[in-house]
Amino acid sequence: MYNSSTGNSMLCRDFMRPRIIQASLKTQKEGIAGNTKVPRNVNMEKLRSGYLFPEISKREVQHIEKYPDAKLISLGIGDTTEPLPDIIASSMANYALSLSTAEGYRGYGAEQGNKALRKAIAETFYKDVRIKETEVFVSDGAQCDITRLQLLLGSNVSIAVQDPSFPAYVDSSVIIGQAGDFEDKSRMYGNIEYMKCVPQTNFFPDLAKTSRTDIIFFCSPNNPTGHAATRQQLEQLVKFAKENGSIIIFDSAYAAYITDDSPRSIFEIPGAREVAIEVSSFSKFAGFTGIRLGWTVVPEELSFSNGFPVINDFNRIVCTCFNGASSIAQVGGLACLSPEGFAAVCSITDYYKENAKILLNTFASLGLKVYGGKNAPYLWVHFPGSKSWDVFTEILERTHIITVPGSGFGPAGEEFMRVCAFGHRESILEAARRLENLYL
Ligand SMILES: Cc1ncc(COP(=O)(O)O)c(C=O)c1O
């Protein structure tokens, strides 16, 4: 029977659809009378209740009901806001129209992705680090590939995650059956190694205290802290993975936001080809959050303990469980990587970086300690001694701004708020004004 206290965990995109969430919860409750005889997946049962983004959606709905005339500003979900450059939108529109002609029509493409796009990704992002186009698998987004990688790995591996971290790593681990039960006291799942990444450790785990796991999820620039790992930190990580015979799954979804000389790819680190997979995305780099396009790099050298190449198994997963990204999205991806498209896309990431700077200066001028924002579209603001949900409520009540409580990304996120820099400039400036009025 459905137990409302162990409701489904949902990921970021659900934040956009508060009413749909309400409706689906209602249907689940109403459905109890006509139960099937199908047992619920015990791993789904394990997912913790009251998960971050549905909870924020609920509070947003309640806030709108309470203040129907308020102009709500969302610095919450990390969704892009600026229109696509014309060159990219028209490439997709023209291709879509050509599908209505006998000469232009195309059906399935290669499961691994359009050859030209794989080549363009390898040449644009991995030019100096020896990634072959055949090692690049085009996807419908990094989040989907994180789950496909979990399917590839199965339930018998152990994982480590940064604490705090993007929720998909932990949740997909629970769903596939790698995790133990959720412990309310520690707010951690059993059998997952939480690697604390806090300001005192320069947002890098203390590897001397980190237990060996098969898999290490590592996101840089990090969501939520905004920290981009330094070259030295990533060298330590690769060394640690080598010594332990572990595989790093490196998430570089925000690499386009790096402004200093931090590595944009794990493959910039010597030796990474033998221990790492990289997942990445067009979502935040090119505003493709709705279009859906990403990629995963699996080097040929990476092998399982029995010597079998990981790339062969990943290819099998992609052919069996995916069938390739939308051809329209892939045409758009190719346009993003043309010289003109790339320049246009970079000017939009520059716009978001300027937003981040405005917010960073605002929080700093208020005397708050703020991290991130320089190599990522996220700011990580410290409110010492406060519970992050209390700060969320105070900011929402008094400024009508949605933020994200840091505790939602893991226990080490308590006392922090994640503030996102995606948004139209006037909303960012208005948010800055409201925050100044609140905290000055
Ligand atoms: C760190 C990280 N990885 C992956 C994703 C998902 O990206 P995609 O839209 O490509 O599925 C996100 C989305 O917010 C993210 O923050």
From TrEMBL:
Biological process terms in GO annotation: systemic acquired resistance, salicylic acid mediated signaling pathway
Isomerase in keyword set: no
Domain Aminotransferase class I/classII large: 71-435
InterPro entries (alphabetical): Aminotransferase_I/II_large, DapL/ALD1, NHTrfase_class1_PyrdxlP-BS, PyrdxlP-dep_Trfase, PyrdxlP-dep_Trfase_major, PyrdxlP-dep_Trfase_small
Any one GO MF annotation of this record: transaminase activity
Entry keyword Cell membrane: no
Pfam families referenced in this protein's UniProt entry, alphabetically: Aminotran_1_2
Source domain of life: Eukaryota
Cofactor: pyridoxal 5'-phosphate
Gene3D superfamilies (UniProt xref): Aspartate Aminotransferase, domain 1, Type I PLP-dependent aspartate aminotransferase-like (Major domain)
SUPFAM superfamilies: PLP-dependent transferases
UniProtKB keywords: Aminotransferase, Pyridoxal phosphate, Transferase
Homology family: Belongs to the class-I pyridoxal-phosphate-dependent aminotransferase family. LL-diaminopimelate aminotransferase subfamily.
NCBIfam families: DAPAT_plant
This protein's name: Aminotransferase class I/classII large domain-containing protein
Source organism per UniProt: Populus trichocarpa (Western balsam poplar)
Lineage: Eukaryota, Viridiplantae, Streptophyta, Embryophyta, Tracheophyta
